[in-house]
Design goal:
single chain; 6-stranded antiparallel beta barrel; 3 helices; mainly beta
Amino acid sequence: MFTGIVQDVGTVTSIEAKSGDLIVAIAPRAIAIEEIQVGDSVAVSGVCLTVARLDSSSLFFDISRETIARTRVGDWRSGSAVNLELAMSVQDRFGGHLVSGHIDGIATLAASEASARSTKMVFSAPLSLAPFIAEKGSVTIDGVSLTINRVIDDSQDVRFELNLVPHTLKATTLGQLAIGEFAHIEVDIIARYLKRLMDVS
């Protein structure tokens, strides 16, 4: 499990296609390689991946066809910046919200504007995710835990507004997003299970 509090922005250093899968190498900047072991879970721009091997400078991840089909991992290139968060330990502060690293869909940055020192961003997401997106609820965008300001329902998609403070813009990749670019979205895990309970009751 994760909390959506990004600890580092790493860089994709290599991508190797192998029998339909991918091997992706990522170099962290702030996270010490010594803190990580083979088999550890790492949220990479919101995607829970398992460290397959490591060297003195990079972490290597095996990416399955299922993950490639459901995420933007296939769009990564050497030099791509990615948000990194190590899995929670029992000693960690719970600063964000419960994040599983299981991507629910792809969101699109529809609008962005300055709001004092912060930035308001509006994302559009598939209409199927509308039941999980609520005003003042939590959502994860590219691994970043955020609070929804407001929701704009539409017949084609669901749009929601987020407020990103200067620290978030600086400490994550979200400040680099341009209008029309895509991002991973994970809905609140509690909302996901509540919806499931309602559907089967």
